[in-house]
## 1
Amino acid sequence: MTRRQRGFTLLTLPPVPEAVTAGFGALPHTTAPAPRPPAGERPPAGERPPAGERPPAGERPPALPPQQPTGTRHSPGLRLRMSWTADDDWLFRPLPQPADNAGRRLTTALSGLLRQALSDPWLGIHEDWLISLHHVRTVVPAGRTLRVHLPGPRPDSCPYKLVAVVGGSGTGRTQLYGPGRTAPLAEVRLGPGQGLLMDRHAVTLDAHELTADATGPAVQDLITASVFPWARTPDPVAAAG
């Protein structure tokens, strides 16, 4: 079965530039609530720690080290227009143009990553493409599994989707479903440096989860890209979401 017939292909990513990985530090938008521990692991409502464990009156407790919030967070969407040039290469133009050097470095770094990941015969070179990108970080507590909710448009509104793991730990699992199917077409496990490109005509749903082992929390950093045909999208910027 060809890649086009099964509807997805696995990719090996090029080295990920620091300009891309730096964008995961402070992501503003939450896409899924943090998992709640089982009831047996939470103190009953209103219960206070024993007196010996509380600081004396007037004394402030010591500051705790900063911790990353559990759950999935993502960046605002970054949009690029991808065009084939007379030099037989893809040109990526940000929408709008970045206002500072950091934004320009990020655009250049993402362009290099996408140039290799999307160099596939699925994408015709005779039309332009709109790409909507997000940084996505998921943090899972030790010994837990969390569903990873990815931002982006409805699966039926864009023909192609890329999910690229650019860093992290833990075990990620993705199940792919076809139209009207209740059993998955395939199950894949992606690690850092790997990506998954999907044809939405054949893969209409992708379900992702991340598991942390008992030794500590797991962190997974993803770049997601929703790919639209520019000329067939009435309002490209609105469609990218």
Note: The two ends are 33 Å apart (CA to CA).
## 2
Amino acid sequence: MGKVKGLLDYPLDYSGLMTFVIDAPLGFLAMLWYLAIFIVISKAFDAANKMPRRDKAARAIKKNQMLRDLFRRSLGVTLFFLILCFPFVHRYEIFRDHELRVRGAFDWDDTVYPFSTLRTFRRTVTGKGLIFWDLDFSDGRSLTTTAPSIALIEKIVSLPGVETNVAVSDHHIHPKAKP
């Protein structure tokens, strides 16, 4: 039986930046989580305002019940959103000197993209200002990533035969001048 590979099976000599690619609107889900927690807390405040005023024993019992319900509901909401968000952060990328390795959370093996087959490297800016980097390889595969390091971009731009729309000078990235 083969050895099961884990996230820590990689050597520590990688150059470049490990980037996390998000394929879902996690900010929107986080905003919904904040809203859900706010609703849970506001219901707890409503329950606190309805507690008996004069009977101290009944008030203590009601307070304990209210705190238990607050904890249970906020834990339930948090677990729900963690389960909902987990599949969306599903891959990470490691750039080495001669290749790019990509592994998803549910993959046993990583996918290797050698830089020798890299054909195009393009910077794409969306309408909201998000920057994506598109890599196209000669075997027909393509990959979109975010936030590679400046050193990695310098290395990719300097590779022979790679078509790109950016240039790097003095550790600054700028659009390549059109001929």
Note: The chain has a mean pLDDT of 77.
## 3
Amino acid sequence: MEERITDEETFGYYLDFTRQEVITRIVSNPENQENWDLAQKIINMEKDSGFYNPDNWKAII
């Protein structure tokens, strides 16, 4: 059974880690559309959960 993250601080930590990983992948291989699609999904999730900050994405936007 998959465990859900319910702690806001822990969720923020995993979100930061995932965001940085996707940004690193995009910077190193900007032609890979899958990474851009993943970034868009994460941005949408951040917006839905109230964690979105455009400054976090300025390296690729």
Note: The first helix runs from residue 8 to 28.
